[in-house]
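REVIEWER CHECKLIST
Item 1: Sequence provided? yes
Item 2: Single chain? yes
Item 3: Sequence as submitted:
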Amino acid sequence: MGKLLEFDIEFDKNKVVYSPGESISGTVRVKLSQAIQCKAIKVNCNGFCGITSKENDVAWTVEEQYFNSTVSVADKGTLTEGEHVFPFKFVISDTAPTSFEGSYGRIIYRVRAFVETPRFSKDYTAEKPFYLLSLLNLNDIPDVWGVNSSEVSQQFTYMLMKTGTIVLKAQTDMKGYTPNQIIQVKANVHNQSGKSTGNISASLVQRVTYEMKKPIHDIKTIAQVEGGTVKGGKEMEWREQIIIPPLPQSSLAGCELIKIDYYVKVSLKSPEVALTLPIHIGNVSLSKKQRSTKKQEAPSSSEEAPDGKPSSSSPSPSLPSRPAPKPAPRPTPRSRMSSHSTPSAPPVDYYPGAEACPATSEDLNKRQSQVVSPNAFSYAPGLFFPQNQQPNGPAAVPLGTGGASALYPP
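Item 4: Structure as written out by the authors:
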């Protein structure tokens, strides 16, 4: 390391997960074996999103910036031998989206420090990531209450001459969930043919869309449950449940480049029949109390005015507005010493799930346990769930004492 023995960034109270609008403070620590000349010591805090057309690439094709602030903590002079500590403080934009890491893009937040030295001397940099969690309250999403249902019918030919029809109906008990809640899936299969169907299955699917000139859709099956078959001429009902693992929230309010959607796919393998049920995954679970309040307010919005015309209804709740995309900075410091760590999604909160519903079909008796894909955790690895969690609120995020790496234990 030469003259520079230590160059680190420390956040106050070792905090690494923040909320939009919150302030982030800490210190830059410099330890020298001998005195050096410096032009300035600067600290930068920025957040941006970058996406690319190549998987796991960081040469961003499109970028947008959320905030970028720089302060000078030391002016031109001589840094003497020994240890020096410089405090800093920044305010995070209140419209910045939640941290995210995907196959084709990332939302990154970081603090960087620079020791700028005279010409022909070494410049030094240090970097430390932090994570942003902007809570998605499912109660703020319009039309999120009630059962989510769909139906599809399909004709097919078998044994060259015979034809048949399959009618598939499916529903989920809700339209919005939080991690560790249970999706109650109910399906009805009417086999109007003489041939038995293939196995029925239900899957939780994640679709991440990267908005480029030619959008990229990264679709992954997060979890899947499977049942049995339906004999010819029979109509059967199938019930199953899917436990939601730790996942990034639906949408990314404030980000224009990355969209996240979830849906439950119910399908038959033979003949190939499938339908999808869109759902939302958030951080604050649905509240029965708020639902009853919405129902009480609904009739008042349709009352007629004295002139006989209906009065205008109150506007539906919506997600926060998103700022216009801005180009993100591409700093190219002459780095001889850096501590870079790629940020991922912040920890997801813990919420207790609903009770299980037993299956009622006799022919669909081949129930299997839920299969969770390893890709389910690709966006939020190593997440930790506290045990004492209230059902209708966000969990407190447990923080380690070792900085950002403490969130992802081996």
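Item 5: Key structural point noted by reviewer: The chain has two domains: 4-136+324-346, 138-289+351-375.
Item 6: Recommendation: ____
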